Amino acid sequence: MEQQARVQEFLRAFHALKAEVQKVIVGHDEIITHVLGGLFAGGHALLEGVPGLGKTLLIKTLAEGLELSFSRIQFTPDLMPADIIGTNMIVEDVAGRKHFQFQKGPIFAHILLADEVNRATPKTQSALLEGMQEGAATVSGTAHPLPAPFFVLATQNPIEMEGTYPLPEAQLDRFLFKLRVKYPALEELNEIIDRTTRPRDAQVRRVMTGQAVLAYRELVREVPVAAHVRELASLIVMATHPRWEHAPEPARRFIRYGASPRGAQALILGAKVRALADGRYNVSAEDLRAMALPALRHRIILNFEGEAEGVDVDDLVGQALESAEGQSLRGREVFFR
Question: Which pLDDT value is given to residue 335?
Fold first, then answer.
């Protein structure tokens, strides 16, 4: 009974926060849901889309709905790691003695917006890696813990590739989800014009504290996963590996490397959040289907043939999903015989 009450509390809080974001953001319902999923699953999210689609505004609006500190970094080619993490500065105390004091950089915030992250050099991009994975930033051999919860939301532009530095696979793998932000429909565009050309902007209320976010993250991890659902998640990930004996033909032909074990973790955690947001305390196969694209699309590396033919990774994920479901059904048929 107590667990059911916690699920209902999460359900109300999730939709209250989503409603605050939707006061400002028109459309993008699925994107907003997945961003909130990343927040409550304890991961980070990468938003990809052309300029002007509201990626930065979405993230800033989410931060306004939370009682958490917010920081934004505009990534540029001349940005240095110290501009993100901070550095030791020489300061003078009241007695006139000089000593080093660590001056924190913008990474020391609960919610960090890494805007146009692919515009900075790999050296600077790597400054985010430790924070994203370990929740700390090391300077001069001293690890400085980041505030909890810590949530990185990065944006990147897929069309202006001149002067950009594509994220290395190791860093991409540390994003729980990669979300593709698409153009709004005609009705949504009309609504955007109406909302953004009025004299007054919508007021976003703070509806959730940091402690509540941490408590909901614990609840998410407590959601049970049935054995056959867990196996389906593993089969989906394995179906992206070209050398796996049951891999579908497109994976063998176009994929160089498949999704890492983090892909399976992202699938399950995302599915748990989706189940709770639907008022359920169990994960279904439908939850896995809904989370397959955001959890896996950035973890698959195409081979030369795949690159040359312009194969869409989303199509390969869909085929891996179909193959895995077929394998799961055949396994259950054998079991029941």
Answer: 33
Nearest to 232 by CA among 294, 322, 143, 162: 322
User: For residue 99, which phi and psi values (nearest 5 degrees)?
Assistant: -155, 165
Tell me the C-alpha distance between 131 and 152, whole Å. 9
Cα 282 to Cα 81, 220, 291: the distances in Å are 42, 10, 15
* CATH number (domain holding residue 81): 3.40.50.300
What pLDDT score does 330 carry? 59
**Cα dihedral value 265, 266, 269, 270, nearest 10:** -160
Is the pLDDT reported for residue 323 higher than 50?
Answer: yes
Q: Please say which residue of 197, 222, 247 terminates a domain.
A: 222
Strand (E) or helix (H) holding 103: strand 98-104
Phi, psi for 327 (deg, rounded to 5): -65, -40
Backbone phi, psi, residue 86, to 5°: 115, 180
Q: Residue 247 sits in which domain range?
A: 223-337
Rounded-to-integer distance, Cα 291 and Cα 319, Å: 14
CA distance 42 to 27: 24
Same domain, 201 and 245: no
